[in-house]
Amino acid sequence: MPADLPEPPVDKSSTDHPPLRPVVGFHGRQPTGYYDPPHVHDRAQFSYRLEGVAAVRAGGEAIILPPGRGVWIPAGVRHEVSCRGPAAYNVLYVTTHVAPQPDGLRVIDIAPFLHALVEEFLTFEALYDEAGREGDIVRLILGEITRAPPSTEAGPRLPTDGRLQRVCAALRRDPADGRDIDAWANEAGMSRRTFTRNFREETGMSFVAWRQQLRMTQAAALLGAGQSATQVAQTLGFSSLSAFTTLFRGAFGLSPRRYVERLEPSIIGRSGQS
């Protein structure tokens, strides 16, 4: 790590959640504007959002975690988290001698079965029975995480309905498309009521919230690629830079300029480890 960068803080998982068992975990909540500065853990970490959206910088990569998406971070990988709040999440810490271990950053969508297993695990006593049913559930959790296909979407969850998928595909091609809900419902061949109901059931959020999250995901990627805030605002169809800045701040808890400034230490940290 370059000399001008501060050492990561002490691994909080080791102090707050001692490894009484090879896998430990907890359910957490984060306040509005939460920011966890760059740090490392001596264990692999798997976490996923239940509420709220988090922006994660890990190993030099930018990851957006909406509800229902999780990230598997290997031990020793420097990472930081910022989120709009309040937010809720589940997290597991896995000691390095437990198999399987992540061989790199891994982002997955959380299947209902995996979520149910984690929720059950979080009811266990600290000294749960590794040789019995509780240990079987822990091994099943790790297996399900490993077998889950990587999420191919950096943005909000996609619907499975083909008609809604067409709408989402059109917006991903052109996030600046400002047509209203009635126009998109017509595009999908649905009534407005059916469109809004089905969209929420399939994605877990309203159409308006989904489109905003898509734009914010793309905004983070474009800013990270070197575009100015003004260019990003124009590309994504915002009426003004101030409107874009306001929405970005609401999503990530900081302005586009501060977001870009925070990218630099992670990029430097990655180059220093190569």
Please give the structural blueprint.
Elements: H1 12-16, E1 23-30, E2 35-39, E3 44-51, E4 54-58, E5 61-65, E6 69-73, E7 79-83, E8 87-94, E9 106-109, H2 112-121, H3 133-147, H4 162-173, H5 181-188, H6 192-203, H7 207-224, H8 229-235, H9 241-252, H10 256-273
Antiparallel strand pairs: 1-8, 2-7, 3-6, 3-8, 4-5, 4-7, 6-9
Structural notes for this entry:
The protein is of the alpha+beta class and 274 residues long. It has two domains: 136 residues, Regulatory protein AraC (Jelly Rolls, Sandwich), CATH 2.60.120; 109 residues, Arc Repressor Mutant, subunit A. It has ten helices and nine strands. The chain has a five-stranded antiparallel β-sheet with strand order 1-8-3-6-9, covered by helices on one side. The chain has a four-stranded antiparallel β-sheet with strand order 2-7-4-5, covered by helices on one side. α2 packs antiparallel against α3, α5 packs across α6 and α8 packs across α9. The termini are close together. The N terminus and C terminus are likely disordered.
Helix proportion? 40-55%
SSE order: HEEEEEEEEEHHHHHHHHH
Report the CATH superfamily of the largest domain. Regulatory protein AraC
The total strand number stands at 9
Task: Name the structural class.
Answer: alpha+beta
Query: Mind telling me which CATH architecture of the largest domain this is?
Result: Sandwich
User: Taking all residues together, what is the mean pLDDT?
Assistant: 82
Low-confidence stretches: 1-10, 264-274
